[in-house]
Design goal:
mainly alpha; 209 residues
C-alpha cells in the first residue's frame, strides 16, 4: 500500500504538471474557446482516455520500446505531427458558416472525443514522461510494481481530468464573449490553426530523453 504522504506528494505534482503549459491543456483551451465548453469537455475525456493507454503501456513495460527504439519513437511522432497538421488545415479552411452550424466545428460527440484520444496517444513524449515519472513513486517493498503504477496512473488521470475540465469551463466563457463578433469567430479559427502548427513543430523537433 502506498503511504498517504507519497500519494499527497504525487497528486500535488500531478496537478502542477497538468496546469503547466503543454500540448494537452493548450489544445483544450483553444478548442473550448473556439467551440464551447462541451467541445472542451469531450476533448478532455479523449485526452484522459489516451492517458489510460499510456498508463497501461508504462505499467506493462511497452513504453520502454519508445525510449530505446528510435524508429518506434519517430514513427509515432510522425503520426502525431501529421494529425496536428490536418487539424491546422481544417481550422484554416473553416468558414464562418461552419462555425455557426452547431458550435462544435461540425464534429459529433464521438468525433470530438476521438480527436482528444488521438492527440494524446500519438505523442510519444507522454509515454516517455510516464516512464520517467511514475516509477519515482513506486517501491518494490510495497508489493506489485505493476499495480502501483496503474494506481498512480489513475491518480494522475483524475488530476488531469479535473484541471483540464476547469480549463475547458473557464475558456468556454471567453469563447462565448468572443463569438458575439462574426469576424472574431473566423480569427479564432485562424489562431487555433496556428496553435496546431506550433504544436506540430514542437512535436517534430522533440527528442527522446
Amino acid at each position: 500500500m502506498i503511504p498517504a504522504d507519497v500519494i499527497l506528494l504525487f497528486v500535488t505534482a500531478s496537478v502542477a504538471l497538468a496546469f503547466a503549459p503543454g500540448p494537452d491543456n493548450i489544445f483544450v483551451l483553444t478548442q473550448s474557446a473556439l467551440h464551447g465548453r462541451k467541445t472542451g469537455l469531450l476533448v478532455t475525456l479523449g485526452l484522459c482516455t489516451g492517458l489510460l493507454v499510456h498508463t497501461a503501456a508504462v505499467s506493462l513495460g511497452v513504453a520502454a520500446i519508445f525510449q530505446t527504439s528510435l524508429l518506434a519513437f519517430s514513427l509515432l511522432k510522425l503520426a502525431g505531427v501529421l494529425y496536428l497538421l490536418c487539424l491546422a488545415a481544417e481550422a484554416f479552411r473553416a468558414s464562418k458558416a461552419a462555425l455557426e452550424s452547431d458550435g462544435s466545428g461540425a464534429l459529433s460527440w464521438c468525433g470530438l472525443y476521438t480527436r482528444g484520444v488521438i492527440m494524446n496517444i500519438t505523442n510519444p513524449k507522454v509515454a516517455i514522461f510516464f516512464l520517467a515519472f511514475l516509477p519515482q513513486f513506486a517501491d518494490p517493498a510495497r508489493g506489485s510494481i505493476t499495480v502501483q503504477m496503474l494506481f498512480l496512473g489513475g491518480l494522475f488521470i483524475v488530476s488531469s481530468l479535473i484541471v483540464f475540465a476547469a480549463v475547458a469551463w473557464l475558456a468556454g466563457y471567453i469563447g462565448e464573449w468572443l463569438q458575439r463578433s462574426d469576424g472574431v469567430q473566423v480569427v479564432m479559427n485562424r489562431i487555433a490553426g496556428m496553435v496546431f502548427v506550433v504544436l506540430a513543430l514542437r512535436l517534430a523537433v522533440s527528442e527522446r530523453q
